[in-house]
Amino acid sequence: MINDTYSFTVAIPLIVFFSFLIIGLGFGRLKPMVSGIFGTMALLAVTALSYFTAYRYFFVDGMMNGSFQKFIAYDALWMSFTDSLQVRMGVLLDPISVMMLVVISTVSLMVHIYSLEYMKHEEGFSRYYSFLSLFTFSMMGLVLSSNIFQIYIFWELVGLSSYLLIGHYYERPSAVAASKKAFIVTRFADFGFLIGILMLSGITGTFDFLKITDPGGSALTQGSAVGFMGLSVMTWSLLLVFAGAAGKSAMFPLHIWLPDAMEGPTPVSALIHAATMVVAGVYLVARLFTVYVLAAPDALITIGYIGTFTSLFAAVIACTQFDIKRVLAFSTISQIGLMMGGLGVSGYTGQEGLGYTASMFHLFTHAMFKALLFLCAGAVIHAVHTNEMTGMGGLRKYMPVTNFAFLIGCLAIAGVPPLSGFFSKDEILTAALEKDKLLFAVQYAVAGLTAFYMFRLYYSIFWNSDRQYHSKPHESPFAMLFALIFLSAASIVSGFIPFSRLVTPDLKPFDSHIHWAVAIPAIAIAAAGILIATLMYRKESGLPAKTAAAFGGLYRAAYRKFYIDEIYIFITKNVIFRYISAPLAWFDRNVVDNAMNSIAALTNLTSSRIKGLQSGQLQQYAYVMVTGVIIVVLAALYFMNA
Amino acid sequence: MNILLWLIFIPLSTVAVLIFCKDRRQYRVTSAFGMGLQLLFSAYLVFRYTEERNAGNAEPMAFMYSYRWFDAFNISFMTGIDAISLSLVVLTSIVAFTGILVSWRMEKLPKEFFISLITLAMGVFGFFITIDLFTMFLFYELAVIPMYLLIGIWGSGRKEYSAMKLTLMLMGASALLLVGILGLYVYSSPDVNILSFSIYDIASADIPLEAQRFFFPLVFVGFGVLGALFPLHTWSPDGHSSAPTAVSMLHAGVLMKMGGYGCLRVAMFLLPEAAKEMAWFFIILTTISIVYGAFGAIVQKDLKYINAYSSVSHCGLVLFAMLMMNQTAVNGSVLQMISHGLMTALFFALIGMIYERTHTRDIRFMGGLMKIMPFLGVCYMIAGFASLGLPGLSGFVAEMNVFVGAFMHTDKFHRTATIIAVASIVITAVYILRVVGTLLLGPLRDGHEFETGDARWYERWANILLIASIAAIGIAPLWLSDALIRSIQPIIQKLQ
């Protein structure tokens, strides 16, 4: 439905776009702090607009006849492939896009404020802020997209901003390598995504989300013909679209870029690689959820399995890492896996849609507490100048506010009531229990592991014994603390948002309550995880080393991240570089080109052989002429006689 | 005087004035003025063309003009433009103007250099505005001959070898082409007395399928060599790497487009039945081109070689798209010509500028250039992103039209070819980011021999002009693609 009263929402991405242009083109001319403050102001405006939109949409006029409406707030033709297949630039408002507006603007604003202090002494401060604006623009454009092609466009643009921001310290080879890896791995996934889009548009004849996801529309019934390998065309196209989602959201086996992406500045990790961009894949599946659940349930449950497996896989690795940002990165992968798992087990109507609601709920709460954890980690790294937890300890004395904020983040992610993570995780577990016991069991285990590795991290940083610090660690300045306090508050209260009344797959609210039968065991396993971590890491002891030795091969494999990186390096370095490209280049120079040169050489050779005839020597000419005449005459005689 | 003739007249008079110029300053100012005027004029032509179309002129070609100069064989000099040729004319004038700008400091025989360069450009302009095969062929040759001199005299490295190779391969191709053109001429009418070279006369003639089968490969391959069709692309890496900067720009940016344009306008449009029948073979070749060029680029060490292979891949996409024979794909094909023209011109301009400062093109000896030449570094990154098809830049628009158009075929053969072609977006990302990573990012290599100093004013303007055009198409593609679609329709009708 077209709703002009919301047309102001188009300003949300545009404000940040112009902020990007102004800071970006004014490069070097603006004073660094001016760009920083300008960018933050732009974001403040965007945040205000987003909150206003959310308030109006959810509480004033978004609901009609008992269900939330989908509004097209803005629409313009961008390019037409054919008369019917067009790419439009639009703004689509529905519960998930409005919710995402709030998530992105909140986290982004906090990161902007935090970075004013955190990045103050860095080179390229203006560049940093212009890219932050570019990222926020692309992400806003992505969530507001009204058609799948538009989402692809912004999808690529968030990939670009992620590339640019991971490579912020571009003189550091590891940062360059990490940014390249992130771009190429997600590009590879986008190859699948693009084919998926092409197939989907081939089936439905449109890119438009409203038409594709209309539960009563014709789009859903088409494409059920059995295609390749026994799966329907629709399933194939949706699985390929999910490939793109898996790339951005770091699902196994495309997760390898995310831990390396921690090479970027820590606030960037908080914004892009924890709270917003990496959940774009979850958002994409949610956006197309109607199609997944009604037309290709087999694709949907596959997503559930992949997500849940990833969440276990990453949680195990997270227990063994020592770089605090990498622990958080694997934890992010694990939590996104849970969100995918939630989507995978969800149904469509009423209470059955709990998985979907839970997934979106977890996306929201996770954005808050994970951004909080990353920003705390940034404050810690700022204070002790290392990423390794072996170089940290006892920091609670020096950084009391950070300590407290980090503890809140850990409790939230571990699922301790009444913090936000408890509520969202409870819903995910409940949904899984109703659909698939195996998935539930795995997710339950993940909940325990999560509590363990988070408190391992917490104790190693803030408790344990003091290390040798170059200078005495100090608490962060006000701008940074402000962001930490704000996000701590959000991590505490966001659990009380009644998501089932706001965000549901069929847009109709339903009632949900805490499922104590699931919640109590979940609290128990979280408590167990915390307890074990307390015993092992609160004080310096030989226990961690002993435990590691007890697990032996499993520990080593997990520590090396199950050798997935090595497999990738083998494929890229050896297979593509050494066994495809290099021989191909050789073939081109030595076979194809040589064939051409041989033709030239042959011509040369022929001409050098026959050029002797043009010697200019009269005797030779006479000799040739007489010989020729004799041959001709003899031949003539011979043929005439015959 | 017909408005299109100015496109030939302006370069011609620039060359005439250049003959009387006395010093380096005069040469370059005259050349820049002439080509700047040409650029403004082509912008004016866009305006006039739009006006004409809006006024309801639905003829396939606007501004037709014909001058018969050889009665015995009914040979006329005929001109006319539609959106396809017009956009290529604009492309040529942008590339020619920026080419003059980047040659601002040409030291060696500057007068002769600028004269050859502008003559070359004149050949290209002539080629795009003519609609009779004879004159088209004439202008084609007019563009190739100065190329030989420009590479052979002002080039670097194995310049004589490269110049010879390039010219011979293109000449070989034009031999095929000439046979094809004469064939088209012979079949242009059943009556021997009114045979014609005019494209529209031939298009309305009924050429028997047997003859089409014979002539289509000749014409398609003849133009295809210029469009770097595998396996006849090997002139391109050597030619590009030896050519001076402005020539590489014109060559990759514009000359290779003459190949694509010829394939579309002559081979496909005039011999449609054979095109339909033989498309499968050339689809295989072009699919190979796309992937082969991209893989080839991954391991190259010389910046120009990287872009030469990348051009093989991108120009392969041009031919691939037109062989898909539907409106979307052919539109993508033309957009890809324009987009590739702009971005390779930008690439080669930047490579020339970087080479001037570092005296090497080998990426193993460079690194971290972003630190000392940020402007050029940022431009190079933008060119790279255009090349790997990032939204907001022209490459994306072109590629998406190609892929969507190609995917409209539902049979296995076309689908497989399309998926292979789409895979090139990943390989392209690999080689582009490899170059960006080693050349621009990372620690600054011990570069005491590097001249520091970022872009000079003329270099800045050349880059800005090219980037602005790339971004304009990328951000708002509708106006261009809509205009193109109207001109593509007559061609598509013949192919369906």
Describe the structure.
The complex is a heterodimer of chains A (642) and B (496). In chain A, 69% of the residues lie in helices and 3% in strands. By secondary structure, chain A is mainly alpha-helical. In chain A, strands 1-2 form a two-stranded antiparallel ribbon. In chain A, a hairpin with a 5-residue loop joins strand 3 and strand 4 (86-93). The longest helix of chain A is centred in the C-terminal third of the chain and has 47 residues, at 564-610. The relative contact order of chain A is 0.07. In chain B, strands 1-2 form a two-stranded antiparallel ribbon. In chain B, strand 1 and strand 2 form a beta hairpin. In chain B, helix 2 (24-54) packs antiparallel against helix 3, helix 3 packs antiparallel against helix 18 and helix 10 runs parallel beside helix 12 (303-322). In chain B, 62% of the residues are buried. Classes of the chains: A mainly alpha (642), B mainly alpha (496). The interface between A and B is large, with 48 and 53 residues.
Secondary structure: number of strands of chain B? 2
Unreliably modeled segments of chain A: none
Query: Termini of chain B, distance in Å?
Result: 38 Å
Q: Name the average pLDDT of chain B.
A: 87
* Helix/strand order of chain A: HHEEEEHHHHHHHHHHHHHHHHHHHHHH
Principal-axes shape call of chain B: globular
Helix segment tally of chain B: 19
Strand order of the largest sheet of chain B: 1-2
Strand order of the largest sheet of chain A: 1-2
Given helix and strand content, the structural type of chain A is mainly alpha
Tell me the count of domains of chain B: 1
Number of strands of chain A: 4
- Quick one: biggest sheet of chain B? 2 strands, antiparallel
| Major sheet summary line of chain A | 2 strands, antiparallel
**Shape, per Cα inertia axes of chain A:** globular
Assembly annotation: heterodimer
Strand fraction of chain B equals: under 5%
Helix content of chain A: 55-70%
Mean model confidence by pLDDT of chain A: 87
